[in-house]
Amino acid sequence: MTTQGTEKNHAAIWQNCLKLIQDNLPAQSFKTWFEPIVPVKLESNVLTIQVPSQFFYEWLEEHYVTLLRKTIKQELGKEGRLEYSIIVENNNSKPYTINLPTAHGQKYENNEVNIPFNVGTTIKNPFVIPGIKKYNIESNLNPIYVFDSFIEGESNRLARTAGVNVAAKPAGTAFNPLMIFGGVGLGKTHLVHAIGNQIKQLHKNKIVLYVSSDKFTNQFVDSMRNEKFNDFMNFYQYIDVLILDDVQFLSGREKTQEIFFQIFNALHQSGKQLILTSDRAPKDLKGMDERLLSRFKWGLSAELTTPDFETRIEILKQKMYQEGVQLPQEVVEFVAHNINTNIRELEGAMISLLAQASLNRRQIDLDLAKQMIKNFVKNSSREISIDYIQKVVCDYYKISVELVKSKTRKREIVQARQISMFFAKDLTKSSLKTIGMFFGGRDHSTVIHACQTVNDLMETDKQFKNDVVEIGKKIKINTV
């Protein structure tokens, strides 16, 4: 057979293969993994194709070997085989090839071939190929964010507990991926950095990388523009723990989603850990590929909600400790009550209060806190919360909030519970059903009975009435 005839033959055979492959793959997958392939030769029913990197070869063998095998046998018969010609850059940046037969499902080990990648000892750029041995990669983690400074409460207990477990056993729990979701300023970034820092401390050989979805997208676009896509894929396949922040920003970016889908699959199948954050639950993410959303639901999705009054107080105490200051308890409670949106604003209010005291050379007291809050909070008329009412009532009677939520029928506990319900109905906009839920899931009829009981006792018991009036003053005094 002439050389010209051979070229036509192997090119034609591969084109026929591509038509069959294209019918069985999503468009982006076909474009990414099969369009770059170049047919080289056909000899004795062995078709040789040229692929741009070793990683490219391994990906084909791991994900598409069955499809390739069926396609080749359909075109070349039962004796048909496939061989790869892998382009590798040597130290002088000159390409040469390694010819490998298709493994047909058997994993090809890196250490069987010495490939002289030209890399340094530290990888800072995601487009530098890691090569065969381990290299140092900057994690982009903030060392300030650790579990010790992440205050635990009902609003974050599930997410924090899952994070601790993942840090202890990356990819060794059912929480893979672990998705942390919630509104702005609730601690998502703090928590995932804490997980990453803990993993680096406990598993020093693990490669951990934190990256925002925007940066990931920009890296992908740059890799395509500069023809370094394979290096980009190589780098991300090398990571042991990938933390992707704000995945909601992948919405509408179809090509970036397709690539992340492939990276997600490669890491997950290789026993690597994925940690994601989002401002909403997976089911509420719009403009996302359904296949990617299904992957997000494989592990655990844990929500961070607005911290309750007690947790806000602990957060402020933690901030006071970090700043080396002490504040009166009434000031701490006042700030915690009035800043009930998110942690970021809560800490910002504390910093603002310290700044006001320093600039005006004033002692921090309740009056200064009230003045600061009026300027800090847009709506100075803030609704009193049920958890705050519970705290004030329980402090007055020197009992724990958990007791008024419990089923105990001790007289002093029942009385505190009924007074709390009375003020919750009088001072908040919450429904009777919602109020009942704050007291151990009691129904609306219990709330109605409690309010009636308090009203009746105030008419007949002078001491009881004095207690209720005093408690009411304590609740309202901390309201701007």
Residue-averaged pLDDT: 79
* Biggest sheet: strand arrangement: 8-9-10-7-11
Q: Report strand %.
A: 5-15%
Describe the biggest sheet? 5 strands, parallel
Identify the CATH architecture of the largest domain. 3-Layer(aba) Sandwich
Oligomer: single chain
Give the total of beta strands: 11
Task: Identify low-pLDDT runs.
Answer: 1-7, 89-100, 103-134
| Total helical elements | 20
Task: Kindly identify the CATH topology of the largest domain.
Answer: Rossmann fold
Rounded Rg? 31 Å
Write down the domain tally: 4
Helix and strand content put the structural class at: alpha/beta
Shape: elongated
How far is the first residue's CA from the last residue's CA?
93 Å
CATH class of the largest domain: Alpha Beta
Name the helicity range: 40-55%
Summarize the structure.
This protein is an alpha/beta fold.
